[in-house]
Design goal:
heterodimer, A: alpha+beta, Thrombin, subunit H, 6-stranded antiparallel sheet, 6-stranded antiparallel beta barrel, 12 strands, about 40% helix, B: mainly alpha, 7 helices, about 5% strand
């Protein structure tokens, strides 16, 4: 009697198992092939986000408390230093304003479209651990704050990564050291370019496509080149840490340390760039004559509706 | 261990939630490589102590949540988690569930399969970790197992031998 029951329960277990295996296989195939399951992923992300936030909370509080109870002397020193930095930045900002106004004047003279300003949003990185071999982190801002997939994220003045997936209140950032990530960079000293590919290891990038005869030294700083139209140009990315020649290979194996310290960074900035490229593309290739003609047309257009009114 | 029961309704889910908290615990990069497979271990524990109460569906959903947290392909950990539960339940009659060495043999086999199939799926979808350190969690899971079972034993109660009278 017992045997029969056991057999029954075992076969029902097997049926359940096979059913779930089939469902998993279908789900994996669909998720791998396309984006049809994106809503499901977003919904489940919303479900687990409070959980992540709760796990992160004690660490956030302890950080806050250690700040709160930190030494007065240390605090004062830090404060002094920050004020100095602020003064320096204020001075630089002053210069920037004069340059910006000059730039605007020049653009007016050239009849060019004015560049639209970037704007920033501060986001906090949740210190929860995820996949061991991927470099993705969760931040506490999401679609509600107009974060979008592919958005650039920086830390301080260095590049941090890009938004990989979003939910209403949270988003996942792929750091530039993720193995799936690559960014086109330019040597600040020599202007030669390379592709900085993530290694999956902390703070380490591999610079690819550097031929053996290229001038490169340890300590060279690579900045984003702006090619690929995702990352803005001239943001610092990494500093060369080791160069290895291989006689059988026409390329060098160059490793670079990122300027962002991914182990300590908890606050990042999401950037909104105006779609400059898209706007200027229509205007740039036209001659002055065409521009004038267009202006006339625009004037006519402006006049006609008025007549109708 | 036939005389055990859950401490309160939903104790199993609570223990899985605890496993998730441990999974999400912030660790330094070197420690992260040693992170035991908390959720899979919790399911193995319940398969050993209360095989009748373990649900494949619960395991599937727990795996799905790991997929969300890890950003891995949806269904990967769901698939491997039900393999953990199914294998444990099928292997259970073949071992003596109270003996530590038997438990170790079962965990090595089940977690080994779990990690191997995860590795296959990751490699097939283009995220091969390509390092032997991928297998460190297997070792750390075995090391932490006696302590972890002691913690998880809070979620069940041993029915006293006098209850039957």
């Amino acid at each position: 009697m017992n045997d029969i029951i056991d057999n029954n329960s075992q076969s029902s277990l097997l049926i359940k198992f096979m059913l779930l295996v089939a469902i998993s296989a279908v789900v994996m195939a669909v998720d791998y092939r396309g984006t049809a399951l994106q809503p499901v992923r977003t919904a489940l992300t919303m479900l687990v986000y409070p959980f992540q936030y709760a796990v992160d909370a004690p660490f956030r509080v302890s950080n806050y408390l250690s700040d709160y109870f930190s030494d007065h002397k240390k605090m004062a020193a830090e404060n002094r230093q920050l004020r100095t930095t602020l003064d320096i930045y204020a001075a630089r900002n002053q210069k920037y304003h004069s340059i910006a106004s000059e730039n605007r004047r020049l653009r007016e003279q050239l009849n060019a479209v004015s560049a639209v300003k970037e704007h920033f949003l501060l986001a906090e990185v949740l210190s929860v651990s995820g996949n061991t071999f991927r470099r993705k982190v969760t931040i506490n801002r999401g679609a509600n704050e107009d974060i979008y997939t592919g958005q650039v994220v920086i830390a301080g003045k260095n590049i941090y990564g890009q938004i990989d997936s979003i939910a209403p209140n949270s988003a996942e950032i792929m750091q530039i050291i993720d193995t799936d990530h690559a960014i086109h960079v330019r040597n600040q000293r020599t202007d030669s370019s390379a592709l900085a590919v993530g290694t999956g290891k902390t703070n380490l990038l591999e610079l690819k496509n550097i031929e053996a005869n290229v001038d490169i030294k340890e300590g060279d700083i690579y900045v984003s080149s702006g090619l690929g139209q995702l990352y803005p140009a001239d943001y610092p990315v990494a500093v060369v840490s080791s160069i290895a020649y291989n006689s059988r290979d026409s390329f060098m194996k160059v490793m670079a340390r990122t300027l962002t310290d991914f182990t300590t960074t908890r606050e990042v900035l999401a950037i909104w760039q105006a779609k400059k490229a898209a706007i200027t593309k229509d205007i740039e290739p036209q001659s002055q004559l065409k521009k004038n003609k267009q202006k006339e047309k625009q004037k006519n257009k402006q006049i006609t509706p008025r007549k109708k009114n | 261990m036939n005389s055990a029961s859950l401490r309160f309704p939903g104790a199993m889910i609570a223990s899985i939630a605890l496993a998730f908290v441990l999974l999400l615990m912030p660790l330094s990069d070197s420690l992260l490589l040693w992170r035991p497979e908390w959720v899979a271990l919790a399911f193995i524990y319940w398969c050993l102590t209360l095989p009748d109460k373990v649900s494949l569906f619960l395991a599937w959903f727990a795996g799905l949540f790991i997929d969300i947290l890890f950003g891995s392909i949806l269904g990967q950990h769901a698939f491997t988690m039900i393999i953990v539960v199914y294998m444990s339940l099928r292997l259970l009659p073949r071992i003596s569930a109270n003996t530590l060495w038997h438990q170790y043999a079962l965990i090595s086999l089940v977690l080994g399969t779990y990690l191997l199939i995860n590795l296959w799926i990751m490699a097939a979808t283009g995220n091969n970790p390509a390092t032997w350190r991928y297998w460190l969690p297997l070792l750390s899971s075995l090391i932490i197992w006696p302590i972890y079972t002691w913690v998880l034993s809070w979620f069940r109660v041993e029915r006293g031998r006098f209850d039957e009278f």
